[in-house]
Amino acid sequence: MTLEAGAPFGASPPSDDHAIVTEGLTKRFKGGQIAVDALDLTVPRGSVYGFLGPNGSGKTTTIRMLLGLVAPTSGTFSVVPLPRVGALVEGPAFYPYLSGEANLLRYDAADPTASGRTARTRVTTALERVGLSAAAGKRYRNYSLGMRQRLAIAAALLGPRELLILDEPTNGLDPQGTREVRTLVKEIASDGTTVFVSSHLLAEVEQMCTHAAIMRTGRLVAHGTIASLSGGRAPRLRVETPDGADAARVLRGLGLTAVAHEGPEVSAELGGHAPERLNAALVEAGVAVRGLSVVRPSLEEVFVGLTGEGFDVEG
Ligand SMILES: Nc1ncnc2c1ncn2[C@@H]1O[C@H](COP(=O)(O)OP(=O)(O)OP(=O)(O)O)[C@@H](O)[C@H]1O
Predict the structure, then answer these.
(1) Taking every annotated instance into account, which residue ranges of this chain make up the domain ABC transporter (predicted)?
(2) Which of 5, 10, 14, 133 has the highest Cβ tally under 10 A?
(3) Is there a single domain that holds both residue 165 and residue 243?
(4) Is the CB of 66 under 6 A from ligand 1?
């Protein structure tokens, strides 16, 4: 759904630096279940902020509180003024027999705060923004899954937005549609729009976002830039070779640490070494290098390290 107007009770504008700030934000549903537990979140303006967590970890409830759709039990939050927030929480229902453009015009007309005179401009701009100008006249039922989701995002972009909130925008999409949405999110962010996007897929957040917060059963377990989240562990050099013992000796001689040798693979902490130099040194020492790569710890490894638990990587 897209929200156009009306500030929710309890919300106030955050500072110039942040699009969303929450402090101790908590939601306990009737029956005692804590869905969101004392959440402290700071979303910098201009970031693509991944809100990551397995199903049921409290992402949607948090988003619904931010949009004023659910009242918090306790805590505070501030968000940019709601007319400047575009949100995709549950995809809008589009008419299959109408074109993308006609659907957006209908959708726009349902907004009492939007002027009818400028409707066409708004719709044209939104379609352009999501790359659907060429397909504007095509019937919705003939759209691919990716195009359908792009149209839903266009509906959230009818009007100037400082913040776009997307709840699991790639859920149910095929790989092509997922790629389309990922690319679109980056494009939308490139002009400075803050994007807050929830996902249960680590790899997706890693590829699409500048920052992430990781939720587990209503609690925040880690947050920060993707680089800082992944940076806790050092990159490693990995060499594939039939001359493992020699390779390990050469790397130790060059000052590499944490050298490990197992079968045809030798690995070590890369430190400040240039991989191409190490390659040259190995070859010079007569080591047959079949493969050489630098492996950086993924967000998933970091997450597993933080929580001691696995994660729903494929969905
Ligand atoms: N209206 C409600 N009444 C009672 N419990 C609820 C309600 N809405 C959500 N919950 C519970 O709160 C918890 C958090 O749900 P929420 O939908 O926020 O998680 P989520 O991370 O968005 O997961 P998903 O990706 O499955 O939507 C879940 O255990 C859920 O069952």
Answers:
(1) 20-242
(2) 14
(3) no
(4) no
**Six-digit token string for 185:** 């999110």
pLDDT tens digits along 242-301: 999 999 999 999 999 999 999 999 999 998 899 999 999 999 999 999 999 998 777 777
3-state secondary structure of 290: coil
Based on the domain organization, do 35 and 184 belong to the same domain? yes
Boundaries of domain holding 122? 11-230
Contact by Cβ (8 Å): 282, 254: no
Q: Is 265 exposed, middle or buried (0-12, 13-18, 19+ CB in 10 A)?
A: middle
Structure tokens at 280: 């040259």
Indicate whether residue 35 lines ligand 1 (CB < 6 A). yes
Is the same domain home to 16 and 145?
A: yes
Residues 159, 203: one domain?
A: yes
- The residue to mutate among 25, 60, 67, having the most atoms of ligand 1 within 8 angstroms of its beta carbon, is 60
What is the C-alpha to C-alpha distance for residues 121 and 123, in angstroms, rounded to an integer?
A: 5
